[in-house]
Amino acid sequence: MHGSKSSLVAILAYAPMASAFAPNAKAPLSSALRATIDPDTITKKDYEDICGVNFDEQSLDERLQRTSYLYPKHVEVVEDFSPLVDRMVDEILLETGEKAWQPQDYLPDLTQDSWYDEVKELRDMAEGVPDDILVVLIGDMITEEALPTYQTLLNTFEGCDDPTGTTESAWARWSRGWTSEENRHGDLLNKYLYLGGRCDMRSIEVSIQHLITSGFNPGAEKDPYRGFVYTSFQERATKISHGNVGKLSRNYGDKNLNRICAKIAGDEGRHEKAYQLFVTEILKRDPDGLLEVFGDMMRGQIVMPAELMTDGKDPDLYDNFANVAQRLGVYTALDYAEIIDHLVRQWDLEHLEGLSSAAEKERDYLCKLPKRYKKLAERSMNKTKKVTEDEVPMHSFNWIYGREA
Prior knowledge:
Layout: H1 5-12, H2 15-19, H3 31-34, H4 44-51, H5 57-67, H6 72-80, H7 82-91, H8 115-126, H9 131-145, H10 147-154, H11 170-196, H12 201-214, H13 224-251, H14 255-285, H15 287-299, H16 317-328, H17 333-346, H18 357-388
Helix pairs in contact: 7-11, 9-11, 9-12, 9-13, 9-16, 10-11, 11-14, 13-14, 13-17, 14-15, 15-18, 17-18
């Protein structure tokens, strides 16, 4: 791993010779090597000692794989704490099957004689939820339903992929387990909205298909460091959004929706804890590398996973949805600033020691960032409030049959 690619190619030029080695066998050497090495005395072990590498098939495969990584050091670091990831699968993720909650636990059972009364009760409670809250709930549900895109993203993080689809590595088990839990969120919200009868489900389904087709690029660049900083941020943002939608719906009498949103927010909170712990482990092993990545990401902007959302008709659908969420206080610029502050404190960046001079500058920049973002967020929100205090801008949403929110 420490050799250059060219030196590895040079060594592999003698692959026929290496593959001919058997225990205690003599090596057929090229004429060039015979000038300096006695072919009657050289053994496989002697040759490996001279070169400093093993030439068995598995070792060669591992060396070639490592030299193909864009971030070999980052891969070494995440592999180093894979035993922790194994524990995360068992301690953070719930059991699958009968022991895990399922969407049906929170929905009317259409196989029972009481199904009609159960559906009517759900609809009666949902009827009181205003359209603006409904629009944010729909946007959150569409975001959850684009789960295939997010699992694809996880499998791009070098060293954390699931190459066969059933790989038993810690990282592959985490990816599949996380996905199986997240899959419940879109299922539950989708069925709730369908039974509620207030939405154009076909328009919503079109939006889901468009979002999955469009994909999204959070700028992780295959780097596990970037990936886990992003997921640490995004899981907390999703938790905040679901939790606030639930609280608002409870204020309008929909205790069922509040219960649903609280359950989903709880899942996001557990996943947030795991991803933030992964970053903590990276900081223990490579603080300079993590701070460089974190600082670079914060100089840009965290991309929201539904940024490319469209229903095929409204080109500004995501912005309109996000503006409603901001106005309701579901997810705001202040929440963005709070998440940065939380991560800086969670990872205790202020007290990191043994840093390079460049990493110290990144640490100082990151520690000052939350206060700066908070001021910018307050200024922006106050400006928006002054502009709209006389008239709230309304937008038509096809999700709710063209009604405005």
